[in-house]
Amino acid sequence: MSISEESYKDVNFCLRCGSKMLLKFDQENKLRSECTNCGWTFYKNPIPVAACLILNDKNEILVIKRKFEPNPGEWALPSGYIEIDQSPEETAIDEMLEETGLIGEIEKFIGYMPNPSPIYEKVISFGFLMKITGGELSAGDDAAEACFVSYENLPPICFNSHRYFIQKIKEELLDKFELAQK
Ligand SMILES: [Zn+2]
Predict the structure, then answer these.
(1) Which of 4, 11, 61, 77 has the most C-beta neighbours closer than 10 Å?
(2) How far is the CA of 13 from the centre of ligand 1 (A)?
(3) CB 121 within 8 A of CB 44
(4) Distance 89 CA to ligand 1 centre (A)
(5) Distance 21 CA to ligand 1 centre (A)
(6) Tens-digit pLDDT profile for residues 105-133
(7) Of 69, 83, 145, 171, which one is the catalytic site residue?
(8) 8-state DSSP, 120
């Protein structure tokens, strides 16, 4: 799908010099927003996010109730925007501690998935299976609640990317379980 005028509807003034931005096709024939004064170009890209899938020793999954936009009051995995000076892994470790009080490390990369965003149009989520190495469970920072629940009792999860990470890990665990039964 090509970049549409709709994607740039909020890009009106240059972040550098404050002059008016105008839509233009670049040399690759892609629509961009360009400053009429200094020529600075605004690129509309998906915003990267890291999400944490944290299991306890009963294979229950840690979910948080979101405090802030987007989707306050709804349930999701701990997650956060990747800062300019962070790797996705560093963000996952930080968000895990900030939102759940648990210290962790990366067990493995699960995958990535784009997700529509009411704020940024689109984010792209990088999912990590985390290993708990310390800390104590308590909702913190931008989480109103944090708790472990079984797959059967999972509340509705508000982001399609998080649902995808959960489904992927669930299938892997089932495969392992079935192998162990044989
Ligand atoms: Zn400018």
Answers:
(1) 77
(2) 8
(3) yes
(4) 34
(5) 8
(6) 999 999 999 999 988 999 999 999 999 99
(7) 145
(8) T
CATH topology of domain 5-42: Ubiquitin Ligase Nedd4; Chain: W; (2.20.70)
Both tokens of 134, joined, read 């310390």
Checking if the pLDDT of 155 tops 60, the result is yes
Q: How far apart are CA 90 and CA 105, in angstroms?
A: 9
d(CA 47, CA 125) in angstroms, rounded, equals 8
Distance, in Å, from the CA atom of 44 to the CA atom of 114, rounded to the nearest integer, reads: 14
Q: Tokens for 21, please give them.
A: 């931005």
- Domain boundaries, given as residue ranges, for the chain: 5-42, 47-181
Selecting from 3.90.1210.10, 3.20.20.330, 3.40.980.10, 3.90.79.10, what CATH number does the domain 47-181 have? 3.90.79.10
Residue type, 161: S
Determine the distance separating the centroid of ligand 1 and the alpha carbon of 43, expressed in angstroms: 14
Count the Cβ atoms, other than its own, within 10 Å of residue 40: 14
The answer to whether 75 and 159 have CB atoms below 8 angstroms apart is no
User: Rounded mean pLDDT of the chain?
Assistant: 93
Q: What is the DSSP letter of 122?
A: E
pTM value is: 0.90
Please check the confidence at residue 19 and state whether its pLDDT lies above 90.
Answer: yes
Backbone angles phi, psi at 177, to 5 degrees: -65, -45
Amino acid making up residue 156: P
145 given a catalytic annotation: yes
